[in-house]
Design brief:
Helices cover 14% and strands 31% of the residues. The chain has six helices and 37 strands. Strands 25, 26, 28, 29, 31, 32, 33, 34 and 35 form a nine-stranded mixed beta sheet that branches. The longest helix has 25 residues. 37% of the residues are buried. It comes from Eubacterium oxidoreducens. InterPro entries: LRR_5 (IPR026906), LRR_dom_sf (IPR032675), Surface_bspA-like (IPR053139).
């Protein structure tokens, strides 16, 4: 009997020791329960109010009362949970607590949660429904949540940190509320984002973010944008990564900061003359800049070897569309003086080619002309750039216009690349004052000299060019004669009548050195002749004979005396 009592006493003592040794603050209970005092508490591992692990079967999870913090990575990578809600006792969600829970589709975060760690829900690719009332809004909190389509940031968030919505590829709209600062990397990789609403230190218009009169950010998913009236500055990074292909900048804008268009897909942009400063734009492969001649836009295009189209009327600048297709219908034909065809003067009808070919411009002015400005310090156009102009030439006349006003025009559909030519230097010097040069022709003198064209380009042109030469109204109505001047000799090219506004149209299919004379000198087989075709060599012989005869007579008379 005594032995039995001893055994019972030892068993009870052992049970008491085990009971004392077990931590009173930890509850580890069977799987599939909630945190009550019964077996449903087995789902969670909780220590001193901190939920450190989850052992449940997934589905809808409710963080129980009594928990004050969900520890870092507590649920990270769990593929079974589909929704999460929190008891009012929870104050903190640590960094990455629910990251990469790929089947988590909805979450409700109450205002009672005062601290949310970075990347708390990052990589939750199925997350599409979020109720978020906490004032804590950390970096990368929803990064990679590719099913999230819209989001409203709670009032009191204060700022939008880096990476908050990074790579949320299906996010289309976000309401930031009233915030004091925005790190725009929060939206990196949001390729379908088209609208941001914001107030406080910022404002929004057409889904874009502004600070006063400065355009700060254009959502990367927008395919077009209407810049707010009164905008004076386009900030660095404003269009970085944008996929829109064309843009028209309003006349209120004065400054385009460095990097405003970097790495964007904007291929055609209209820049008004109000813009006086354009910073460097790395990684921007623009096809065409449109603007006024001699503007900052023109200078930027020339300095960066970008095709430039002049729009020299205020109506064109204000109203023309930056979209290539719209510009086709609206038209922006040159309209420059001298764009009408010049016709030749009347010469001997029995010899229609006596001084070369009579030039009547082959440019149809009813077809829109795209003008490329050529500055005095213009770098040669590359083969790639010339390919672009040739593509335009399928639908337009093409005109290269120098600062002197010379227009080298190619008719629609006529241009093609020249074999083995990689650079096209379209600069031309217009010389209106005669002076003796190393390359000179004996038939040219100060009395018959009208002008000289000195082309930087040499050789065959992409097509027959019609060159509009602004020689001045003093020659209006007169016939001038155009010659190639090489090796101290002239070669007949063409002739024509100067228009009332002082333009002579000449044509050629290759470039060299050319002169325009006010009298016709016909060159046949290398022999210069007068306007009626008389061989100048015979005149020289007659003159020499006459002088010789005269001297002989004087000599004889002297002897007789």
């Amino acid at each position: 009997m005594k032995q039995r009592k001893k055994i019972i006493a030892w068993v009870l003592a052992f049970a008491m020791v085990v009971a004392v040794a077990a931590p009173a603050s930890q509850a580890i209970v069977a799987k599939g329960s909630s945190v009550t005092a019964d077996e449903t508490e087995q789902e969670f591992v909780i220590t001193d109010g901190v939920l450190t692990a989850y052992n449940g079967t997934g589905g809808a999870v409710s963080i129980p009362s009594g928990v004050t913090k969900v520890a870092a990575s507590a649920f990270s990578g769990n593929p079974s949970i589909t929704s999460v809600s929190f008891a009012s006792s929870v104050k903190t969600i640590a960094a990455g607590a629910f990251s990469n829970c790929t089947n988590l589709s909805s979450v409700s975060i109450p205002s009672t949660i005062t601290s949310v760690g970075s990347s708390a829900f990052a990589g939750c690719s199925s997350l599409s429904s979020v109720s978020y009332s906490s004032s804590s809004f950390p970096a990368s909190v929803f990064s990679g949540c590719t099913s999230l389509s819209s989001f409203t940031v709670p009032s009191g968030a204060g700022s939008i940190p880096s990476g908050a919505f990074a790579n949320c590829s299906n996010l289309t709209s976000v309401n930031l509320g009233s915030v004091s600062s925005i790190d725009f990397s929060a939206f990196s990789g949001c390729t379908n984002l088209t609208s941001i609403s914001v107030s406080g230190s910022y404002s929004s218009s057409d889904g874009c973010v502004y600070s006063g009169n400065k355009l700060l950010y254009v959502p990367r998913g927008k395919t077009s944008v209407s810049i707010k009236s009164g905008t004076t500055t386009i900030a660095s990074g404003a269009f970085t990564g944008c996929t829109m292909t064309s843009l028209k900048i309003p006349s209120s804008v004065k400054t385009i900061e460095s990097g405003a268009f970097s790495s964007s897909s904007i291929g055609t942009v209209t820049i008004p003359s109000s813009v006086t400063s354009i910073g460097a734009q790395s990684g921007w492969e623009v096809n065409l800049i449109r603007g006024k001649s001699k503007s900052a836009a023109n200078k930027y295009a020339n300095n960066n070897n970008i095709p430039f189209e002049a729009i020299d009327s205020s109506s064109d600048e204000e109203d023309s569309s930056s979209d290539e297709e719209e510009s086709e219908s609206s038209g922006s034909s040159s309209g420059s003086s001298g764009s009408s065809a010049s016709t030749s003067g009347s010469l001997d009808p029995s010899s229609p080619n006596y001084y070369g070919v009579e030039v009547i411009s082959g440019i149809d002015d009813t077809i829109e002309t795209k003008t490329i400005q050529v500055a005095d310090d213009q770098e040669p156009f590359t083969r790639k750039e010339m390919k672009q102009y040739i593509r335009w030439n399928k639908n337009y006349n093409i005109s290269f216009e120098t600062e002197d006003g010379i227009m080298v025009k190619f008719a629609k559909g006529s241009m093609s690349l020249v074999d083995d030519v990689d650079e096209y230097d379209m600069r031309v010097n217009l010389i209106l004052k005669y002076k003796k040069r190393t390359v000179d022709a004996q038939e040219m003198n100060s009395k018959n000299f009208a002008f000289e064209l000195d082309y930087y380009y040499e050789g065959e042109l992409p097509a027959t060019a019609y060159v509009y030469v602004p020689i001045g109204t003093k020659y209006a109505g007169e016939t001038l004669y155009y010659y190639m001047c090489e090796d101290d000799q002239l070669e007949n090219i063409s002739y024509g009548t100067v228009s009332e506004d002082g333009y002579l149209v000449v044509s050629q299919n290759h470039c060299s050195n050319y002169v325009g004379l006010s009298e016709g000198i016909h060159v046949k087989d290398g022999t210069p002749t007068t306007a009626d075709g008389f061989d100048i060599r015979y005149l020289l012989i007659i003159a020499v004979a006459a002088v010789g005869g005269y001297l002989l007579i004087i000599r004889r008379n002297g002897k007789s005396a």
